[in-house]
Amino acid sequence: MTGGDIVIAGVGGQGILLVGRAIAEAAMAEGFDVKQSEAHGMARRGGSVVSHVRFGGKVFSPTIEPGACDLLIGFEPTEALRNIHFLKEGGKLVCNTRKISAPAVSGSIVVKQPPDIETALNARPGTLLIDGYCMAAKAGSPRAVNLVLLGAAARFLPIPSSRLEAIIKKSFSGKTLEINLIAFRMGRGLRK
Amino acid sequence: MNKVKKEILSGNEAIARGFADAGGRFAASYPGTPATEALEELCRLPGIHAEWSINEKAALEAAIGGSLSGLRSMASMKHVGVNVAADPLMTASYTGVNAGLVLMAADDPGMFSSQNEQDTRHFARMAKIPCLEPSDSQEAMDFTRLALELSEQFDTPVILRTTTRISHSRSVVTFLSGERKVTKRKPDFLAADSGVLQINIPKYVMLPGYAGKRHVVIEKRLAKLQEWAESTEINKIIGSESPKPVHRRRLGIITSGVSFQYAREAFPEAAMLKLGMTWPLPERMIKEFAKGVKSLAVVEELDPFIEDAVRAMGVRVDWGKNVLPLTGEFTAGMVFEAISRRRESSPKTPAAGIPERPPNLCPGCSHRGLFVALSKLKTFVSGDIGCYTLGALEPFSAIHSVLCMGASVTIAHGISAGLKLRGIKRKPVAVIGDSTFLHSGITGLINLAYNGGDAIVVIMNNDTTGMTGGQEHPGTGRNAGGEKAPRMDIMGLCRACGLRVREIDTFDLKGLEALFREEMAAPGPVVLVSNQPCALRYRLAGRPLEIDAEKCTGCLKCLKAGCIGLKIAPVDGRRRVSVDRLVCNGCGICAQLCKAGAFREILA
Asked: What CATH architecture does domain B4-230 belong to?
């Protein structure tokens, strides 16, 4: 791979922007040109959040086209499904299995939660489903779920894990750093 | 040796760094997505006066003062903020500047967080001032410096126009530390020895007699700027380094801003005229470029601003708004399909039937109780710009108009006068937040009081500018840098208008509903003020609630609270509500809606 187009999707408050920024920083350190697009504004706590990260020799558009994404990192299965059309043929999916339900009511209609998203996601070849929250809890805090997912996604990135670890070390300190590093390494060490 | 340093910055951060790097010292803004972070970043940089002004007009006027004092100055705002600042802008064009003056305006194609999709470039033409459009963070930084220099060279305010994808995208910026020097310009306003500001009445006093002479100067300035546009390196032809000469290429594209990135990705082989300055336009350069290509496209989001001007030059445009939309954002794929007239055989779209996560009031939000109460009140409620706009959505449907900053109060005043003339006895309600009230609601309130309006004005004072991420304002008692500042007494301000003022508790539904019934019947206008702070900004949380599944009847009345903490979960095959304890803030609005008394605090 001479670069990468990565979509990261989840729900506000899951630490998505941090993962996008870590990949972008590491890619720049590897000598790639980098562009990143984030959803801001009305996306508050509980809303859908998407971050696009692109790196390569020279990147023009800050956003990724549907059907052109190399790697989709889903922090939540419904949000992964919402963005799965971005994946290209043969693109990889790393997805957290814990669901965060959409609001019970949309308008005056009681919303039916979609039945078996996992089966739909798993039907794709090259899908890696993980219980990120469970692993993050084992690492020391469920909040480190984003680092577990980054670790799990690292195998598909043309960036050495040491680069990513260096960025994590730059971003945190103390106990949080310790937990985040454990979480990252747990995710990276997963076997499919 | 100069050290090269690389950083990934958002467009807004890059603008702030470019401003500071070019010796900018005075910055003023009013929060508004997607412009907010430019001033937030400037607050972190040393030696700069960075302020949240009361509104965009105040921000621009203050920046004009900063420029007159001899400091490079900037006012930053979202596109609709320029409407508010339009009054000083149009005449600041006539007076010109002392030190460099930039108006950074961020447009929002696709309306991620805005009430319209207006195109700021029209303001540049109307004010007869230059408009620069960066296409990534590097240019955002470089063009900010250039805008300041251009402002001083041509004695004019300069608009630096971004869009959401420029302001909020992050890309690599290269700093050459130690190399760049602040280009110094002797402030002509400072008398040589005394340091006292010099007086220049014909230039800065826009009486008709003086303004008439300045208008002539401004038209000449525009002609000079147009000449500058022909030779500046920010207007450039790309693709000419390839062995094929430009004129042999089939397709030529004129573009600017983020549209350049989409067009370049869609047509890497096309000849491109990339305009870094979109007003005034380089006519000779455009005509020359058009002559050298077989077909010409103009790729720009929103209005056909460049395209109309190019057509007016007598140049044929083959592809423009005839194939590209006037609304929303572009993508590279969209540009490709529109101009190549090719559609993908199987377009890739999101799967159907995935439940949305619409924007929601946060758990514990002080606005929730108000909208539950208002949804039962049978009257027209005019809303305003802020988180409380969400009161228009289901399950509340309790906001019936949203127009612009401050309009809730004035619209309610007009409706009350209209209803009175038609002999209808019903009071309209206005809902406005604290920051918006101080921005421009107060003028409407004075107007209402003075002209006999009869409405209930609700001010949701949550001690922050919530929707844009929690900025300070005069009511919080802290300035942009977080230092202590005089605290505006909002209730006292309303009393000073000559109005009756009452404090309300939006977490007490029964009390609130009774108070509304009373005030709907009472004669004369009233201001109701809630002083409950923003739960998100101040991290306020009580003990989470839970539901006794034995008592829950599945009536779903609690869902009228419109809270993401409530879930429907079947128990023994019957419909029951449960509380997500990780989300619940314990505010108790849902519990007050429950007739069965099924909610209780989680016991430790």
From this structure: 3-Layer(aba) Sandwich (3.40)
